[in-house]
Amino acid sequence: MTHTWVVYESMFGNTREVAEAVAAGLREGGEVEVHEVSDATRLPPGLDLVVVGGPTHAFGLSRASTREDAGTKAHRAVESASMGVREWLAGLDGSTLPAYATFDTRVNHPRLPGSAAKKAAKRLRRMGATQAADPESFWVEGTEGPLVDGELDRARGWGRSLAHV
Questions:
Q1: What is the rounded CA–CA span in Å between residue 138 and residue 54?
Q2: pTM recorded for the entire structure
Q3: How far apart are CA 90 and CA 94, in angstroms?
Q4: Alpha-carbon distances of 64 from 3, 36, 71, 131, rounded to whole Å
């Protein structure tokens, strides 16, 4: 039985919904905890997998300035205003990292480049962690969402596939 953490950053709730769906799929393979990035503590010993997700901002991981900008444009409160995946990853101890998988949420527009999932994977790989799956993107309609139809089912399926890696 595996022990997995899903750590996410979310602006408008879409990435949180994907994180919860991924966790639901992962539960087929063991114990799963879901943590909003600002509440995620140090990774516990014995963790088998960490799944990290966040929204794509300015072609990659969010920064304090892009989170602030999202807050000024939002029609509702921003969920992960104080800290993002970028800062959380910078605070990790690379010597104790489990295998990882990364995902992001992105606006459903074919010509928009960049991926927070790929940037997070690159940072984890540089720290010496082992990639369990290729980075995955889940699509939202417009900046605030909602998720494109079928994306939560796809996220659960991706989580199920990770449970058997």
A1: 10
A2: 0.94
A3: 9
A4: 31, 16, 11, 27
Phi/psi of residue 152, nearest 5 degrees: -70, -40
pLDDT tens for each residue of 122-155: 999 999 999 999 999 999 998 888 999 999 999 9
Looking up tokens 């920064």, which residue turns up? 63
- 6 vs 36, 40, 122, 142, 161, CA distance in Å? 8, 9, 18, 24, 14
* Nearest of 136, 132, 162 to residue 28 by alpha carbon: 162
Distance CA 20, CA 32 (A): 10
117: Cα within 13 Å, side-chain hemisphere: 21
Number of Cβ atoms within 10 Å of the Cβ of 48: 16
Rounded distance between C-alpha atoms, residue 118 and residue 153, angstroms: 22
Query: For residue 73, what is the enclosing H or E element?
Result: helix 64-73
Question: What's the full length of the chain, in residues?
Answer: 165
What is the distance between the alpha carbons of residues 29 and 51, in angstroms, rounded to a whole number?
A: 14
d(CA 30, CA 91): 26
